[in-house]
Amino acid sequence: MTGCRRWARVRLCVVLTFSLPPASIRITMPEFFNVLPPADALALLLDRLPPEPGVGSSLAPTPDSLGRVTAEAVLAPESLPPFPRSVMDGYSIRASDTYGASDGLPAWFTVTGEVPMGRRPEVALGVGEAAVAYTGGMLAGNADAVVMVENTQHIDADTIEVMRPVAPGENVAQPGEDVEAGSVVLPAGHVIRSQDVGALLALGLTQVFVADRPHVGILSMGDEIVQPHVIPGPGQVRDINTYTVAAQVAAWGGIPVPLGLVGDDYEEQLDAARRGLAHSDVLVLSAGSSVSARDRTVDIVSALGRPGPLVHGLALRPGKPAILGLCGTKPVIGLPGNPVSAMVVSDLIVRPTLYRLMGCAGAPLHPERTAKLAQDIPSAPGREDYVPVQLTEDADGTPTAHPVWGKSGLIFTLVKAGGIVRVPPDASGIYAGEQVSVWSF
Q1: What is the pLDDT, as a whole number, of residue 290?
Q2: Which residues pair with 217 in a beta bridge?
Q3: What are the distances in angstroms from CA 37 to CA 304, 317, 362, 385, 388?
């Protein structure tokens, strides 16, 4: 396979001898970081956080609670349904009156009335009697089952034939079958979904205690960065990371707090970082996590408070030059300057950190789908690769993932993609034709 060979792991030691240049022309570069797998780096950070949620809680209107995290377990104040309820249009009957019914020997019933929707039944059934039932409505008195209208036919205005027997409770939702009073509806630390909103409102719970949204300060640094409304000069680029990371934070339930742009002046960077950290639950520093001489982010994180930097470098592509730190009890995360790298690291590190602060044991799983890989993806054992892919369907309907190749500074590689494929660290690549799991955008 071209560009994606499965090489055996070997240890190689090469000794080079050379003469040092004169001291006057030596160039000092920072020591390169020691990388960790993303999951290990994240665990190192989360293990240092306090076990309780890092933010407060408050009551939120249930209709506005989508995506919020429950701050305490929600208990059902009543049972649902509160009464035996028909789940079909048909007829309330006594099940025993239908035993033995068939197409060749149907059972005859006299229709004695109906049970209107939203009303208590005013009719009680005797032997061989039925009453019209509607989906969601109550059953007639003495009825214990509902026969579907499809399994009946009219003989005259007041008589029907039933061609299928029903068992007691058939086509009937029993009291408490959906949820019983006092049971846990949603546990603490649960991300509220659309169906959860409906369930809470069905129980009359118009407000719910949720974790407050974490404030995430976002500081972009670099002499080459300008605001999006500015026409860049030579060597300058518009600020992307502030806004892409802010959009990610908002989608994950946080409140982004853009802190503006700061050039490559250490004192200015440190002052802006201190002010941002004071008013945020998490601080994200963008474009200051590399190992070049001008990047002082490790020094900044160290100066913000103990324990300071925990991890400098992830076994990851894109996104290797990342910093994970803890200043007091607040996470500080340094993202690479390249926008694709920044978004990948933000997803892997900032996202689960925010959910942890809101009381979740883990971030919600990404929506995934399986697809056939269209091209080889080469990689190197020992690191995780995240490759953007376009998703299409073959003529037979088979989902196919097409890698979108591009450097980590090219934001449109993500714009053109419909998802991302992860290459695990123990693989030297993935062959075309293999089935892959795609994180769908």
Answers
A1: 53
A2: 257, 283
A3: 25, 11, 18, 11, 20
Backbone angles phi, psi at 5, to 5 degrees: -85, 150
Alpha-carbon distance of 75 to 107, in angstroms, equals 45
Tokens of 329: 């009890």
Tally of CA atoms within 13 A in the half-sphere of 36 that contains its CB: 15
CB-facing half-sphere around the CA of 185: CA atoms within 13 A: 29
Under DSSP, is residue 110 helix (H, G, I), strand (E, B) or coil? strand
Chain segment 264-274, per-residue pLDDT in tens:
999 999 999 99
Is residue 279 within 8 A of residue 217, CB to CB? The reply is yes
The domains of the chain, with CATH numbers, are 1-30+365-441 (2.40.340.10), 38-53+213-357 (3.40.980.10), 57-74+182-211 (3.90.105.10), 85-173 (2.170.190.11)
Q: Which two tokens stand for residue 76?
A: 């059902």
Residue 174 DSSP code: P
* Other CB atoms within 10 A of residue 114 CB: 19
- Please give the backbone phi and psi of residue 7, each rounded to the nearest 5 degrees, phi first: -85, 145
Phi, psi for residue 33 in degrees, rounded to 5: -75, 160
Q: Output the pTM of the full model.
A: 0.83
What distances in angstroms separate CA 243 from CA 181, 247, 295, 370, one per listed residue? 45, 6, 21, 30
pLDDT tens digit sequence for 134-158: 999 999 999 999 999 999 999 998 9
CB-CB contact of 91 with 164 (8 Å): no
Averaged pLDDT for residues 241-268:
96
